[in-house]
Each structure stands twice: as C-alpha cells, then as structure tokens.
Amino acid sequence: MTVPAVGRYDRSIVEGPLAQAVWKIAWPTVLTNIIGGLQGIVDHIMVGHLVGFAANAGIGVAFQIFIIVIIFINSLFTGMSVLVARFAGAGDEEKVNRTVYQAFLTAIGIALFIMAPVGYFLSPTLLDLVNATPAVKHEALPFLRIMFLFSSGMLIFYMLSGALRSAGDARTPMVLGIAMTVLNIALNVVFIRGLGPIPAYGTAGAAIGTVIASGVLGVYSLVRLWGGGWVVSFPRGGSYGPDWTIIRSLFRFGLPTGIQGIAMNIGGLLMLAFIGSLMQSAAAQAAFAVSYSQLFSFITWTSVGLMGAAAAVAGQNLGAGHPDRADEAVHIAARFGFLGAAFVGLFFLFLPRQLLAMFGMNEPVVVEIGTQLLRVLSLSGLFIAVALTYTGGLQGTGDTKGPLYISILSQVIVPLGICAVIQRVATLDPLDIWIAILVGHATRCLLSVLRFNQGKWRHIAVDIGAKPAH
Length: 470
Known about the structure:
Elements: H1 12-15, H2 18-50, H3 53-89, H4 93-129, H5 134-149, H6 152-166, H7 171-193, H8 203-227, H9 244-276, H10 281-295, H11 297-319, H12 323-350, H13 352-358, H14 364-396, H15 401-425, H16 430-454
Helix pairs in contact: 2-3, 2-7, 2-11, 2-12, 3-4, 3-5, 3-6, 3-9, 3-11, 4-5, 4-6, 5-8, 6-7, 6-8, 7-8, 9-15, 10-14, 11-12, 11-14, 12-14, 13-14, 14-16, 15-16
C-alpha cells in the first residue's frame, strides 16, 4: 500500500481558504501568459521592421499551423494534469511521479518520431492548404520546418508547467517561463538581425531563437526532474519503459481537449472567412486583428490563468475527498474571472478609440468598426471569462468530454450558423458577426455552468494501478 506523501504537497490547497488557494495558482499563470504574449508582439515588430510585412504574414501563417498541432499534443498534458491533481490531492507521490514520467516519454516520442519527420515533409503542403502566397510561403517554410524539427524543448516546458501547476506549484513555471521568454527575445535579436559573425536569418531567426531557448530550458528541466527538488520528479526504481495503462489514461482524458482545441481553431478560421466576405473586409479584418486578437487577450490571458487554477484546485480537492470544496473553488474562480473581465471591459466600453489609436488605427472606417467590436466585447468578455473557469473545473475533475461538446456547439455551430443564415437571407454586416461571437460566448457560458452544476464530475474515477515490477 502506498504511503501518502502529504508533506511534499501544499496542503493549503485542500485544507486552507479556497480564495487564497485559487489565487495562489492563478496569478503566476496569468503573469506568464501576459509575458509570453508580449514576446509574440516583439517578434512581429522586429521582423516587420527588418524584413517586411511578408515576414509578419509568414510568422502568422506558420504559427497558425503549428499552434493547431501544439494544441493537440498539449491535450495529453491536460490528461496528465487530471491525474497529477487527483493524486497530489490524495498525497500519492509515487503515482504523481509515474504519471509525469510517462507524459514525458509520450511527448518526446511524438516530438521526435512524428512531429519532426512528418512536419518537415508536410510543411509545404500545409502552407498550400492555407493559400499562402509565394512571398509568404518563402518566409513561412523555414520557420515552420525549424519549429517542427526542434519542438522537444517546447513540449517539455508545457509538460512540466502543467505538472507543477497541477501539483500546487505555479511559481516555478512562472519563473521558468519568464526566463525562457527573456532568453528567447535576446536570441531573436541576434538571429533575426544578425550580430558579429552570426548572419541575419530574418524570419527563420525567430524560429531559431525560440527552439534554442526552449531547448536550453528543456535540458535544465530534465536535470532537475531526475535530481529531484521540485514538487514533481521522475520516479526512482521500477521500470523506465512505457506504461501503457498510464498512457491510455493520458489519451482518455486528454484527447477530447485536443479535439476541442482543433475544432475551435477551425471555427476561428471559418469566422475569418466570413469577415473576409464583407463589403468592408479590409477594415473589418484590421479591426478584428487588433480588437479581438490583441486587446481581447487581456481578458483571455487572465481567464486562462483562472481556468488552470480552477482545474488544479478542483482536481486536488476531489482527490483529497473534498468534492464540496472542489465545487466552491470553481465558483470562486468564476467570480475572479468576472471581476477581471468587467474591469477590462470598462476600457473597451468607454475608451475604444484611444485603445485603437495605440495600434495606429486612425482610419475612420476602421475606428468605427473597431469601436463597435470593442463595445460588444466588453459584454462578451464577461461570458467567456466565466465559461473558461467552469471549463477548467470540468477538465480538472476529469470531465473533458463535456467542454468538447459545449465548445463545438457554442464556438463553431452557433456563431457560424448565425453568420451563414444572415448571409443567405440578407446582407452580412460587421455588427452581425460581432453579435454572433457574443451569442456564442453567452451560449458557452450558460452550458458550461449547467454542465458543472450537474455534478457528474464528482463520480469520475481516476487511477493508474499499482507500480509495475522490475
């Protein structure tokens, strides 16, 4: 029988004040998301000035492809997080560490034997599928191939961050994430523009800087995982080969999240197609890129951090045999998310023109459409913030299928269906699309709250069996 390693984990998550527990996990994740997001902005500014707009488009298109793959792979880490949170809540160190090690083996296997070879050879075809122009493809192809070939370090970072956060330590992933981002920006300055004997690699330099930074962090993380000292580590003794019982559990809980992410990205691409069909498509696309893709991120960065906190705290409390605390933790996270979205929404509602001007948006048509969108998003943000926290609560307790079905309905079928109907019976205007997005977010919020309050997550069993023999 396994002796619970109670002292290894932060018991305040399952025994102390819930609001403090949620915030303890949330704020480092929020800060990491913001800093990571700012790095992408820096990359775009650098290549835009040094190479040109084709480089911006190249990075944008390449990341659009790469992120779909990463979202799917990261679904395994959602499955890992479910197991780690549950076992950490129960104080079962041995099962936590076995789960982390098997997630590492799975991630490395996929990175080296699937993503690297398949991604390298399929990159030209993938760029053709998104109709990249020759100039954009010229910039995007080396970037995409480098990212696919050397993705191992990035996957190790995502795996480690999810494991540490689910075990109750959100500060270490924050420190590691900030260190990786600072190193990445420094390397990008060198490789994009060149320095001394190092030539200017342009767009490819952004990928080189990213894979070197994540690779350095990956090596450091492996040393620490083997040596111990963190709240999670690799197991000592027993078999070091694949444990298919654990790997199947990773896929069981993780695959629905991966499919959910891909479906939402496809829905986003189809929504962009509707925006591109408008009479004022260029102005609407510019307004959407700044208002939704950039400014709205200040709401989603916070909400995603709270989603992770809700998942970790709810999962640990369920593992500790405190389902009522798990329930209350998610409600608390939702209130935090609502207040954060309301605060940011005030700026969207009362200062939209000033916010757009920060991005150089001064064309009257763009400003008018962007102002319209920001004011809709000031309300939409409230719904998506609450929806994401309840999604975290469902996923963290093992209900990953519910959020999948809810997301497909609310983020794909509902908004795209509204746009398709209006386009068929009348003239589709920008406001119609913005309202469709709002209705989709409201639907996701309502269904997520209802699904969580059903309480089926209370009875989801999680186990990986006994430790295998030598």
